[in-house]
Design brief:
The structure holds two protein chains of two kinds. Chain A is α+β, with helices and mostly antiparallel strands. In chain A, 28% of the residues lie in helices and 23% in strands. Chain A starts with a helix and ends in a 9-residue tail after the last helix. Chain B is an all-alpha fold. Chain B has a single domain, classed as Fumarate Reductase Cytochrome B subunit (Up-down Bundle). Chain B has a two-stranded antiparallel ribbon. Classes of the chains: A alpha+beta, B mainly alpha.
Chain lengths: 250, 237
Amino acid sequence: MSHRISRRAWLTSVPALGGLLLTGCSRERFVPPRVRGGLIGAADVLTMSTNRLLQSSQPLAREYSRTDVADPFPTWNQTNPRNEEYQQHASEGFRNWRLPITGLVARPRELSLDEIRSLPARTQITAHVCEQGWSAIGEWTGAQLQRVLEAVGGVTPAARYVVIDTFDRWYESYDLFEVEHPQTILAYGLNGRDLPRGNGAPLRLRVERQCGYKNLKFLKSIQVVDSIARFGRGTGGTNSDFGFHWFAGV
Amino acid sequence: MDHASTAELPRPDTDTSTPVHSYNVRICHWVNVVACAYLLWSGVHIFLDFPELYWGHTGYRGYPAAFRLADWGLSWDAAGAFGDRRWGRNYHFTFAWVFLINGLIYVGWNLYSTHFRNQMLPARGELRLAHVLAEVRDHVRRRSRLHASGSYGTLQKTSYLILIFVFVPFMIATGLAQSPGLTAAMPALLDLFGGRQTARTLHTIGTVVFVLFVTVHVLEVAAAGFLTKVRSMITGK
């Protein structure tokens, strides 16, 4: 009989542990915005919760030395969006490019590249980890996303996600835990030079603890929202709309 | 009666040493079969989508590779057309959790129930070279059925223990070392293997070792009487 009780204790301890993790914490830090059905959805929650629990002190992703850098940095997928507006900006050296920051921020407005460059810069030599399996190390320079949001008055208490749109017609959302991380930057420099077109000029996102597909290139706009339901198919990003993981920490 | 006495004798095509498997061993074994099948097949899909391997921290198309499937006759495009990494990633990470939770239940239960200590830890005498050699000799002559009923042989015990406590942790660690999220939280994973690409390469080599293990395991079961052994892993008898 004692065997039977301890077996039950064993089996119930797994969901109990999951419940413990979620109590008293904000849901969006541990659970994707839309949880898929079945076993895959359960695994998504376990994966994200485990990652976020282990990352609770916001540790930095490994920073490498300059000798590890890949230069030229490999390019992948879109290297030159065939978007008229983008081509216009590119032909003008992105002088007239503006980044609108709208939604749940105190003072929504557009920032020029020079304004973003005038914010305190962070340079980090980190690995770009593609979910396909390749990885390359680059020296990224940019403004922390948190500082950029502070430049427009900071997010309001209702804010839950930051949604980024790009000129190659991708969008992705990020919860505030990811946004607040010191290495989450809007990069305008790569390996000591301006960000090349093939790597996402004029500005790309670096989220160093997630796979390559969350590191959007060719940024077009930023919106701060309380829910991602009205974007795309409502899963929180182009990749997850296509059936990839929304949380790409693995 | 004649009937009863012949039933006592070992028959040439069956194995009278068939151990009686507990519920835990049986359920965990078959859950594990499903999880490993999905892990293997989804892993193959993930690999085929990027069929090159590298050493160190860096590896991308055009970077000096340790292994390129294209050198073995399957072009990048042909491999990529077959490899569905979306399906692969979704199922790999789902069944990694099934495998892990099932494995923890198996190990936890059998540490608690003393199955490991009583049935799987080799006795001191069993590890003597003479004993091991004798067992190998018997094994080659297919006389492993002469082992005392209900116990594993030394070779079996050792290979299962190495599989569970060395190989599985190795595969989990080389898998985790590829994750940008987990390596940020546990950078030691990167140093342990000398880089993300090395971890990916070792994870792939481990997959080949795993396939070899399963092949030998299934051949051994077949040699010992496939139907009897499979029935015993289902019914426990």
